[in-house]
Amino acid sequence: MKKTCEYCHKVFTTQDRRQTFCSRQCYENQHTSLKSFICEQCSATFQSNDNGWRANRFCCMACYTTYRRSHSKKKLRHFKCAYCGKRASVNDIDYYAEQRFCSLRCSARYRFEYKNDKCTYGPNWHGQRLKARARDKNSCKKCGKKTGRLHVHHIVEFREFGIERYKEANDLSNLVTLCPRCHHHTHFG
Predict the structure, then answer these.
(1) DSSP codes of every residue in 1-21
(2) What is the pTM of this model?
(3) DSSP state of 179
(4) Is pLDDT above 80 for 19?
(5) Residue 105: which pLDDT band, with cuts at 50, 70 and 90?
(6) DSSP state of 173
(7) Which residues contact 11 (CB under 8 A, 6 or more apart)?
């Protein structure tokens, strides 16, 4: 069977119908030599070897991803952001089951405000906790220890106020800094 080499364009004879190069040298030259292409997304000129369809269509992964998203035939999925409440949408191919936030910023803020504590003491808890530690000079008010890990204790328990009155419960006059040992003794004697 006679074929034409894809690299040097010489005519050669072969028994293998899949063979497209006349020699190993032409094959290696074809796959290691750089050619100029124009990116389909940003129209920038770039050089690449001729390996694969994506390698000679897009200059970078960002262009490929943008192109893929803009040319997707799938629908947009709409959802409400769990932090700010804003309506957001995402391309169906980029959607994942736990999509809850419109941006990375909202996701980070949510994690900081709500997920850091096992129980939620209201939206001002993190700020009040830091203020109580600073007021008490990052030391236990009972034993005076300055340990790396300190707890902030509600003098009158939070559950007596309820979430509706979180501002009263988290008032600095109701908060005291304790080490874990003193905090345990306060609750369990």
Answers:
(1) -EEE-TTT--EEE-S-TT---
(2) 0.40
(3) -
(4) yes
(5) confident
(6) G
(7) 2, 3, 4, 5
